[in-house]
Specification:
The complex is a heterodimer. Chain A is of the alpha+beta class. Chain A contains seven helices and eleven strands. Chain A is elongated and about 105 Å long. Chain B is elongated. The chains are: A alpha+beta, B alpha+beta. Chains A and B meet through helix 2, strand 11 and helix 7 of A and helix 6, strand 20, strand 21, strand 22 and helix 7 of B. Strand 11 of chain A pairs parallel with strand 20 of chain B, so a sheet runs across the interface.
């Protein structure tokens, strides 16, 4: 077993010096004839030495120094057993013992973690990313402009674009900082592009939803499907962000996305259950109107509408007499 | 021939002042009226039983020798809706309170009869009173619990835009005087104080309705309703049958409204008003869009409880047009106006939540997007509130949103009026 002794920075714990112990005893002290020289005024000239015990284990032995040896449990020790992982103090100097055969993490790729999977995918190209961001910002601006009937259409559109960037920068910034911490990669544009893809998807789904709502109103299945798709997309969003900011394998990333999505559903469900005063005198109805020729809109006859009203009454009556259901 | 008619008219004109002079008794001093009749009127209070505190103050007056008393339904309505939580008391001049019983109500005309169990010679005798516009009347009651007061005013005929006649009394009736009598100088009851619009515009229930209710109570076969709410539901059902039966039947008055033709004044009791708005006023540019509106409603409704009323019929139209917005932007504006909530408010105690359906319907004249919202009245079986909203589809930069609001109507009437309303929306 090759044993390594690391000299650490007293405060930060950064490794300043490493020594491989090959012959015993190995001495340490302030004087320059030691095997390990420590420039520390609290260390004796010949302070201590590493020896092999009778059973072959490594021990650090004090040589009658002023401050002796300090471990986490014993501040004035004469002998300290040095198994890998042990940290001790000599004077004010921190030492750590390590095993030379200890496994290390695999090397990081210089071009980023996600590229293992998607290095050559079209959406990883810088132009595709910038395009996604521009399209998303433009979509926000366009929907802002379409939703106002006042003269200040341009201001509203610009505000929507600014809103997208403000939220997008915050969101992507948090992920990029996370990636910098975990894998040492600050991939801001990639994260912003992911957020942009998600926004574009959400806008398309929302718009599709209003069209279905317009053409086939009161379609409960579509409404539920829309919510479900968006929640799934949220899981995918998290998985993609993790791909850029962690070393998790693909399956783990998607699992994490699914777990977060599940948690959101549970929390939302709990809130809706906890809403103990569901009464409101404001009606909820589908009010979408789209600008297309009337002949393209599926229409019911007045007789069919009459039948729908009869069903509506049955629904209201079930509220009036819940026990009679 | 013409000369004869003119002569007759002339003689009538001459005769009128002459008759008036014959009839005119010297108008008694208000103090005299008060002194003669004030002991026939008592304060009524509604007591919340768990806190023993007054929740409502009103006025009542004796109408029979066996101690029957007339007041407004709205003074004692909480007792009807929550009999376990409220009791009705009359308060004598000396301040002592006595619990009394509500034996009959006429919710449509806002009247109630109380049985006090006393025999008293000091009561009003109901009977028809001939009145002319300008006649002096005296209203008595307990305004804001300040003590019995007398208010002078004048008779100004009946209101026109109401579903049943109400007397327009020009005099200051205030809350707390509700249920008190408005009488002539010689102590005949002209009407029962019922509501006010402020600034001396006050309304009375005509004596005729009070007389009818008293006659019902004094009939030999009369028994107080075991379930007053059922009785009220029956009264309201009969009432809405009566006033809705002619609505949207056959030819209905319409007006040209932008490029559309819409219903106006569904019946003579409706009053309509309207206007036009532009999105902005600039001399140099066309506005982004223009908005016309037209609205018809009756002047009154039937009080049921708190903020719950019945007998509201309201028709409103909004026409939108724009030469500057493209199709999508116009549709967004149109949808935004269509989503506006103008439904009557409601309390959980009295109504269910709204349930709505939306369909695109090929109505008789035009394709429309049609929304019907319905809610039930929890305590009044068989009655519903309904709001029908209709938006004309496919007219490019022209839009029309029409709304029909009904409260306290039977489902059959709602159904009939819904299809009648849909049929009558038309392009000019």
């Amino acid at each position: 077993m090759a044993v390594i002794v690391e000299v650490l920075h007293p405060r930060t714990g950064e490794v300043r010096q490493r020594l491989r112990l090959e012959r015993f005893p190995t001495s340490l002290g302030r004087q320059l004839d030691n095997d390990l020289v420590l420039d520390d005024p609290y260390v004796d000239a010949h302070h201590a030495r590493f020896v092999l015990d009778v059973d072959g284990s490594l021990v650090l032995e004090d040589l009658g120094s002023v401050n002796k040896l300090a471990t986490t449990t014993h501040p004035q020790a004469d002998r300290v057993r040095c198994v890998p992982g042990v940290e001790l103090r000599v004077g004010r100097t921190r030492l750590r013992v390590r095993d030379g055969a200890e496994p290390v993490a695999p090397a990081l790729s210089l071009t980023g973690a996600a590229d293992r999977d998607t290095a050559h995918a079209w959406h990883a190209r810088p132009t595709a990313r910038v395009a996604a961001i521009v399209i998303a910002a433009g979509s926000f601006g366009l929907s802002g402009w379409l939703e106002t009937a006042e003269r200040n259409g341009a201001t509203v559109a610009l505000t929507a674009v600014m809103g997208f960037f403000l939220l997008g920068v915050m969101w992507a910034g948090v992920w990029a900082v996370g990636g910098r911490v975990v894998v040492g990669q600050f991939r801001f544009v990639a994260h912003l592009a992911i957020a942009a893809w998600f926004s574009i998807f959400a806008i398309i789904i929302g718009e599709l939803g209003t069209w279905i709502d317009f053409l086939a109103p009161d379609n409960g299945v579509v409404e539920a499907a829309e919510g479900f798709i968006l929640v799934l997309a949220l899981g995918a969003l998290i998985a993609f962000h993790l791909g850029e900011s962690s070393l998790l394998r693909r399956s783990r990333r998607w699992r994490t996305g699914a777990i977060v999505t599940g948690l959101i559903i549970i929390v939302a469900g709990a809130f809706s259950l906890a809403d103990d005063d569901p009464f409101t005198d404001v009606p909820k109805f589908s009010s979408v109107i789209k600008s297309i020729p009337a002949r393209l809109v599926p229409q019911q006859t007045q007789e069919e509408f009459d039948a729908v009203i009869v069903d509506l009454r049955a629904g209201v009556d079930s509220l009036l007499r819940p026990d009679a259901k | 021939m013409n000369t004869r008619v003119a002569l007759i008219v002339a003689s009538l004109v001459l005769a009128l002042p002459a008759r008036a002079q014959e009839d005119a008794e010297p108008t008694p001093a208000t103090a005299t009226v008060f002194a003669r009749f004030s002991d026939r009127i008592l304060k009524i209070q509604l007591i919340e039983t768990s806190s023993n505190a007054k929740s409502t103050i009103g006025t009542g007056f004796f109408i029979s020798a066996d101690g029957l008393m007339m007041t407004n339904y709205h003074v004692i309505s909480e007792r009807i809706h929550e009999p376990d939580d409220y009791r009705v008391e009359i308060v004598d001049q000396d301040g002592s309170a006595h619990t009394v019983e509500v034996i009959a109500v006429d919710v449509v005309h806002d009247l109630a009869v109380l049985r006090t169990g006393r025999s008293t010679p000091r009561h009003f005798t109901l009977g028809s009173v001939p009145l002319r516009q300008g006649d002096r009347l005296y209203s008595l009651g307990h305004p804001n619990d300040l003590g019995l007061s007398i208010v002078e005013g004048t008779y100004n005929g009946n209101l026109k835009h109401t579903l049943y006649p109400k007397i327009h009394f020009t005099g200051s009736i205030n809350s707390g005087m509700s249920g008190g009598p408005t009488i002539t100088g010689d102590g005949r009851v002209a009407g029962v104080n019922v509501r006010t619009m402020g600034n001396q515009r006050s309304f009375l229930v005509p004596e005729k309705e009070a007389t009818a209710l008293l006659a019902k109570v004094q009939a030999s076969d009369f028994v107080p309703a075991a379930e007053p709410l059922k009785e009220i539901a029956a009264q309201l059902t009969a009432y809405q049958e009566e006033y809705l039966k002619d609505l949207l039947v056959g030819e209905t008055k319409t007006v040209d409204f932008g490029p559309f033709r819409v219903i106006s004044e569904p019946a003579t009791v409706f009053r309509c008003w309207g206007g036009a708005d532009k999105s902005d006023d600039r001399a140099d540019e066309e506005p982004m869009y223009e908005e016309l509106w037209h609205q018809c409603a009756t002047d009154d409704d039937v009080f049921i409880a708190g903020d719950q009323s019945s007998g509201v019929v309201r028709v409103s139209h909004v026409a939108l047009s724009s030469t500057r917005l493209n199709g999508s932007r116009f549709a967004a504006l149109y949808a935004n106006r269509f989503a506006n909530d103008n439904t009557p408010s409601g309390d959980e105690k009295h109504v269910t939540v709204w349930k709505c359906v939306t369909r695109n319907v090929a109505a008789k004249n035009l394709p429309v997007r049609s929304v019907l919202c319905l809610r039930g009245l929890k305590k009044l079986d068989g009655l519903y509130d309904a709001v029908l909203k209709v938006a004309v589809l496919g007219k490019g930069d022209q839009g029309l949103i029409s709304t029909l609001t009904l409260s306290g109507a039977s489902f059959e009437n709602i159904q009939r009026l819904t299809s009648g309303f849909l049929e009558r929306i038309a392009w000019r």
